[in-house]
Design a protein that fits this description.
The protein is mainly alpha-helical. The chain has one domain. It contains 13 helices and no strands.
């Protein structure tokens, strides 16, 4: 009943307040389920490979080499106009990146704030985008700092797990590298997942309770320690919901793609290639919109669920399903 109530409450909040989907559209950029990414990449062995490949691609570009600086100096001296255009394009990309980060952080805080206000019933008037945005802007820096620390923790976990592969590049040392990789994985990956839980609660403390940056981390840690099993169970439930939603979306796309495929075939066979291209583009846009909308809804629902869980744990507290089942078994014995 504990999780069912929380999930039902979050579902009702998001269905009755569909503007939260707008915030979810940007909040999804933060990766609402960071703990799932860490675990999945670690279990599939993609953690070290992905990190090394990314680092290798950056090194291969020669961005940090002496020749790159020489080429930049040569470009400035001989083709200042071209350099100015490249610099302007780079600044535009940087500005767009900063805007997306800002919007994602504000959206995350907005969903937490408005969901908490609805759950607590503090506002009689219906909340809107403006209320959430104002709260997000107000709490931008502490929430940004918490997310930055979370991303840094994941990055460091990837790096240290990759060290055995980096330090033992020859085939002869491969068995040792695999053993060390396994040991580091067992130690660091659970720590990274635990830290993601703490950050979730810390963000809630900042937005809902108005806690400071350091105090929010401390309070988040204490709340997690008291309710670690509940947190893990909640993460598992949300993971299964995301998995089922993803499977349902894939099935829906395959089903709805049939009419587009038939129409594209008819246009290609009996009319013109232009019509075929138009149908393909329309089908692609439809699929893209379905994926974006589903991602926005899931992100909003997931953040609302964690917010609802936080309010429950910080208030009366909660008991894990496993603990309740164990207690029932103990009583019967």
């Amino acid at each position: 009943m504990f999780y069912r109530k929380i999930l039902k409450q979050s579902l009702e909040i998001n269905w009755r307040n569909k503007y939260l989907w707008f915030f979810g559209l940007f909040a999804v950029l933060l990766g609402a389920g960071g703990e799932y990414e860490v675990l999945f990449r670690g279990l599939t062995g993609d953690m070290n490979q992905g990190f090394l490949q990314s680092a290798g691609r950056i090194i291969q570009t020669g961005l940090f080499s002496k020749s790159a600086l020489t080429n930049i100096g040569f470009l400035i001296a001989n083709d200042a106009a071209h350099f100015a255009i490249l610099l302007l394009a780079g600044l535009i990309i940087l500005a767009l990146f900063c805007f997306l980060v800002f919007t994602a952080i504000v959206s995350q805080a907005a969903i937490v704030n408005n969901s908490a206000a609805i759950i607590k019933g503090k506002h009689k008037a219906k909340l809107g985008v403006k209320d959430g945005a104002l709260s997000g802007i107000k709490n931008f820096w502490p929430v940004f700092g918490l997310n930055a620390i979370a991303k840094l923790a994941v990055f460091l976990a990837f790096f240290f797990v990759s060290l055995p592969v980096i330090l033992t590049a020859n085939q002869a040392a491969a068995p040792i590298a695999n053993s060390v990789y396994f040991i580091i994985f067992i130690i660091l990956i659970p720590l990274a997942i635990v830290f993601s839980f703490i950050i979730k609660y810390a963000v809630a403390y900042v937005v809902i309770s108005g806690s400071g940056f350091k105090a929010s981390i401390k309070n988040g840690w204490e709340l997690f320690v008291k309710n670690w099993l509940v947190s893990v169970e909640m993460a598992f439930i949300l993971f299964m919901i995301n998995l089922l939603a993803g499977l349902a979306l894939g099935l829906a796309i395959l089903t709805l793609a049939i009419p587009f495929v038939l129409m594209a075939f008819i246009f290609y066979k009996f009319f013109a290639a232009v019509g075929f291209g138009l149908i393909v583009v329309l089908g692609f846009i439809f699929i893209l919109l379905a994926i974006i909308l589903t991602g926005a809804c899931l992100a909003s629902f997931q953040i609302s669920s964690w917010t609802s869980l936080f309010i429950a744990l910080a208030g009366k507290g909660g008991t894990s399903k496993i603990a309740r089942m164990a207690e029932r078994v103990r009583r019967k014995i």
